[in-house]
Design a protein that fits this description.
- This protein has 991 residues and is α+β, with helices and mostly antiparallel strands.
- It folds into eight domains: 76 residues, no CATH class; 106 residues, Beta-Lactamase (2-Layer Sandwich); 104 residues, 2-Layer Sandwich (Beta-Lactamase); 128 residues, Beta-Lactamase; 103 residues, Beta-Lactamase (2-Layer Sandwich); 72 residues; 169 residues, Histidine kinase-like ATPase, C-terminal domain (Heat Shock Protein 90); 125 residues, Response regulator (Rossmann fold, 3-Layer(aba) Sandwich).
- Strands 21, 22, 23, 24, 27, 28 and 29 form a seven-stranded mixed sheet that branches. It has a five-stranded antiparallel sheet with strand order 2-1-5-4-3, sandwiched between helices.
- The longest helix is centred in the middle third of the chain and has 54 residues.
Length: 991
């Protein structure tokens, strides 16, 4: 009992005593005050405040004296002791109650935490305030912390979010919601159907809902299954009926209503006996109903009458009792009936047909039999006697018919196929049998399954015919065909037969390989479909000629187009096929694929042409190389001494211009010599890593191009250079000359103007490219020079790379060796060249340079004289040409070297045998006698580690590389130049 309750109780139960005490208290106080005022007036004639104060104090004292009396009266009046005892007892009871409530709360909380029903408390925003573990699971989460404070809409299926949000609002508006179904979705997309019941509660002045949730997945599944079952029953083609114990119909499906002529709304007005014909009522009462009363089912054939039409329906009925699964008490009768009217009619027709069949089969030429599903013979026609020698009675008594009469080679396999005919037909079975008299005969059998009205297997029926004569004829033909087929298939040539319209009517296997078509497509194909117009015309001409003359002929050099669109070159020999009366009926012939042979012949011719061309170029190159070698020796002396004289004379001397002209003329002569060496493929100096675009840029700003442009002002130059062009290995000088020669050739081809296009690109060839030159597969930098000029005649195209073969204006082509230099340079660079030209449309020269993956070489920088001056070292110059020897000696002497010289390899060996020398300048080619390599080998035997540099008028060769491998230093190409010679000597000495 709380304080408020106590006060109310006191006031309501002791009102009279409380009023009395209050009146006494007030009256006593008023009397005291009045007495104090009276005393003040009597004694002092006025109201003295001090006296009044003393009076009040007295009143307080008097009241204090009376207080215990008042307290005692109150206690007695209100029985406060008893009330205090009662309050103490209530406090004790409240403690016990609170403890009991706590235990009860723990009990129910445990129950809620462990139940399979979800509990959740949500606020008016639909946010979770508390939930048990089952609800956490239903929401698709693992812990309560994952959903606290979150809206239940978050794990509601997208298609029901609006529905759920509306339900939450409706619950708070209405105060509750019942049997509300919603789908929850977890993080993986799994859907859980939920049934909710919610009630609003006031907690701490706020409204919440306590929601109970149940997983109804299983119920949904059962409902769906029940719906499916109801749909099956409703739409079943069989009559399905439920009836009470007295026969009154409870349910009849749509098919049943239609079968017996009862409207759906009138089902409950009828008794099951209404649809039973009069002649079957006795059967129903004596057999069917007694069986049901015994708890047994009954099934069999019945008839129903259609109450609308009066017609009789044949059915196969199954009746049984539906009982209570708990009490086992009978609930109703159930009846499932299938309409078999059509089947009964079919059975009758089948019996009639069977009678007709037996009558016909007994007279037929074939032997017929019917074997049941159990493997036993049901019937066999009398023809079996004629075919097998066994009578019908013998066959009917024969175990495992017809296995005993089948030849052992075919017995098991044939019997298995016949038995499999219970399920599907087995046609064209051929096997041998042994007649009763022991004779072996070939028979052909066709077996088909037999089924009952219900679709059950009734075995199989077999028709068997004697085909011995046919098999003997076929064997003879087959042996003949095998003989010729073996011959045809053993040769590569294809054999064909065509009708007079040109359609294939027979083909050997080789024909499919040659023509590239599958058998079913090529057979029947007309020749026009696999030839082009020209080849088809050739075939037609030959076929007409053969028809007119009747003599065989050949169709040579025609092409066929295979299915994959590739072309093959074909040769064919064709003859005419006639019938017994001598009339033409078809063409036949042999086809030979000569594609590879023609390709090989062409490659052979091309190879021979390239070989002849190479031999011609080699011969001319050898001649040019010999001339160049001699000219180089002479030219070296002129250039060297001219350089020495220029270094000695005064620049203002009248001799200086003349010496300068000598040097200029010598440089031109050196260019001619270099062209000759290039032609001889012995003129490419040491290779460097180059970028072809740079060489083209250099040519773009060269005097050669300016000169050509001045002669051909109508020619427009177009550059199309690949910015990402890969590097190549080669000689910049020679490649520059290649570009200049090709450009000059293009300029001369466009006397009336046009466009010169220089293009570079990277290209990978995954297979060889055949043209003017055969290009192998690999990575290439491709240079193409194209003009729009007059083009090159086919007759000239084969000779354009020959030395001095030109149609250009003399005096403008530079060296006069033209495209021969291009050819030689490409071979020196292991490259390839191809030419395409058409008269009147222009030409394209395409050059293929092998790619290198090395980085670009550093640019050459002119060195100062101090870098290559000698320090008094001893040098031995070995050269078979005296002028060259003297020139080199003089140049080295001016560079502060002590120089000796000899004229042959033998002399050099003898010199080294007697003298020490710091370095040898060794000519690589010396005739007669030892060359530079042999000389160096001998010297190393005497002086191991002897330093040397190699010089020659030719490019580096294998023998130069071999000398490098032995320890020789730099390779220097003639003619001698003071700076180059000095740098090479200094570098080797400083090693």
């Amino acid at each position: 009992m709380n304080l408020q309750s106590l006060i109310v109780h006191l006031i309501s139960s002791r009102k009279r005593q409380l009023y009395l005490i209050g009146i006494i208290t007030v009256l006593s106080q008023l009397i005291t005050v009045v007495m104090n005022i009276a005393n003040s007036l009597i004694w002092w004639g006025r109201i003295d405040p001090d006296l009044l104060l003393i009076g009040c104090i007295d009143s307080f004292i008097a009241t204090s004296i009376l207080a215990p009396l008042f307290i005692y009266l109150i206690k007695k009046s209100f029985n406060l002791d008893e009330m205090n005892h009662q309050l103490q007892k209530e406090a004790n009871d409240r403690g016990l109650l609170e403890e009991a409530l706590k235990k009860s709360e723990d009990k129910y909380r445990t129950l809620i935490e462990t139940t399979d029903t979800g509990f959740v408390i949500i606020d008016q925003d639909g946010r979770v305030q508390d939930a048990n573990p089952e609800y956490v699971r239903l929401s698709g989460h693992a812990a309560l912390s994952e959903i606290m404070g979150r809206s239940v809409i978050e794990w509601t299926a997208d298609y029901e979010k609006e529905k759920n949000a509306a339900a939450v609002k409706a619950c708070f508006d209405k105060g509750y919601i019942r049997n509300f179904e919603i789908d929850y979705v977890d993080a993986k997309g799994a859907v859980t159907p939920i049934e909710l019941n919610a009630t609003c509660l006031e907690v701490g002045g706020k409204t919440h809902t306590l929601t109970i949730c149940r997983d109804i997945s299983e119920r949904r599944k059962i409902e769906n299954e029940l719906q499916n079952l109801a749909s099956i029953v409703r739409h079943s083609s069989d009559l399905i009926n439920l009836a009470a114990g007295d026969g009154k119909m409870i349910f009849l499906n749509e098919a049943g209503c239609e079968m017996v002529g009862i409207e759906q709304e009138m089902v409950n007005e009828h008794n099951i006996m209404d649809i039973v014909p009069d002649h079957l009522i006795g059967l129903v009462k004596t057999e069917l109903l007694p069986a049901l009363r015994r708890g047994a089912a009954w099934e069999g054939e019945l008839q129903y009458k259609n109450l609308k039409t009066g017609s009789i329906v044949d059915v196969y009925a199954t009746t049984f009792i539906i009982t209570n699964p708990v009490s086992k008490a009978a609930l109703c009768y159930a009846n499932v009936s299938r309409n078999i009217t059509d089947r009964k009619r079919a059975d009758m027709q089948l019996k009639e047909a069977e009678h007709k069949f037996r009558t016909i089969a007994d007279l037929t030429y074939d032997w017929e039999n019917w074997v049941g599903a159990d493997g036993k013979l049901i019937w066999v026609s009398p023809s079996v006697l004629r075919v097998t020698g066994y009578s019908v009675s013998e066959c009917m008594s024969m175990p495992d018919f017809p296995f005993p009469m089948i030849h052992p080679d075919y017995g098991v396999r044939t019997l298995e196929k016949m038995r499999s005919a219970d399920k599907q037909p087995q046609n064209d079975l051929e096997f041998r049998i042994i007649r009763k008299d022991g004779a072996v005969r070939w028979v052909a059998a066709s077996t088909n399954p037999v089924f009952t009205e219900e679709g059950q297997s009734a075995g199989h029926r077999t028709s068997i015919r004697d085909v011995t004569d046919r098999k003997l004829s076929e064997d003879a033909v087959r042996r003949s065909e095998e003989k010729y087929r073996t011959i045809l298939e053993s040769i590569d040539e294809g054999y064909f037969e065509q009708n007079l319209a040109g359609d294939f009517i027979f083909l050997s296997d080789s024909m499919y390989k040659i023509y590239g078509y599958p058998r079913q497509e090529l057979m029947g194909m007309n020749y026009k479909l696999y030839t082009d117009k020209e080849s088809g015309k050739k075939c037609l001409q030959v076929y007409r000629k053969i028809l007119e003359t009747g003599k065989p002929d050949k169709v040579v050099d025609f092409d066929i187009i295979r299915k994959d669109a590739t072309r093959r070159h074909i040769e064919s020999s064709v003859s005419l096929q006639k019938d017994s009366a001598g009339n033409p009926i078809a063409f036949r012939g042999v086809v030979r694929d000569v594609t590879d042979r023609r390709k090989a012949d062409k490659e052979k011719r091309d190879l021979e042409e390239r070989l002849q061309r190479a031999e011609k170029m080699e011969a001319l190159g050898t001649l040019a190389g010999g001339v160049a070698h001699d000219l180089n020796n002479v030219l070296g002396v002129i250039v060297g001494y001219a350089e020495l004289l220029l270094a000695e004379v005064n620049p203002v001397s009248p001799v200086t211009p003349r010496l300068t002209k000598i040097m200029s003329g010598s440089e031109k002569a050196a260019a001619i010599v270099q062209d000759l060496l290039t032609l001889a493929r012995r003129g490419v100096p040491g290779r460097k890593v180059l970028n072809l675009n740079r060489i083209i840029y250099d040519y773009q700003h060269s005097p050669e191009l300016e000169k050509q442009s001045s002669y051909h002002s109508g020619v427009r130059i177009k550059l199309d250079l690949d910015a990402g062009l890969l590097n190549i290995s080669g000689s910049a000088v020679h490649l520059g000359k290649v570009i200049a020669n090709l450009a000059a050739n293009a300029f001369e081809a466009m006397p009336l103007g046009g466009t010169l296009t220089i293009k570079t690109a990277n290209q990978y060839l995954d297979k060889p490219l055949y043209g003017y030159d055969a290009v192998r597969e690999g990575d290439y930098v491709v240079l193409s020079v194209t003009d729009t000029g007059e083009g090159i005649a086919p007759a000239d195209l084969q000779r354009i790379f020959e030395p001095f073969y030109t149609k250009k204006v003399m005096g403008r082509s530079g060296t006069g060796l033209g495209l021969a230099v291009v050819w030689g340079t490409m071979k020196d660079h292991q490259g390839y060249i191809n030419v395409r030209s058409e008269e009147g449309k222009g030409s394209t020269f395409t050059l293929y340079f092998p790619v290198t993956r090395e980085a670009l070489s550093a640019e050459d920088v002119s060195a100062s004289l101090a870098e290559y001056m000698g320090k008094g070292e001893t040098i031995l110059v070995v050269d078979d040409v005296k002028e060259q020897r003297d020139l080199a000696s003089e140049m080295l002497g001016k560079l502060n070297y002590r120089v000796s010289s000899v004229g042959s390899g033998e002399e050099a060996v003898a010199y080294i045998n007697k003298h020490q020398t710091d370095l040898m300048v060794l000519d690589m080619i010396m005739e007669p006698g030892m060359d530079g390599l042999d000389t160096y080998k001998k010297v190393l035997e005497i002086r191991p580690g002897q330093k040397a540099i190699i010089v020659s008028g030719f490019s580096e060769t294998e023998r130069v590389n071999e000398a490098h491998a032995l320890g020789a230093g730099a390779y220097l190409r003639k003619p001698y130049i003071t700076e180059k010679l000095g740098l090479a000597v200094r570098k080797e000495l400083d090693k």
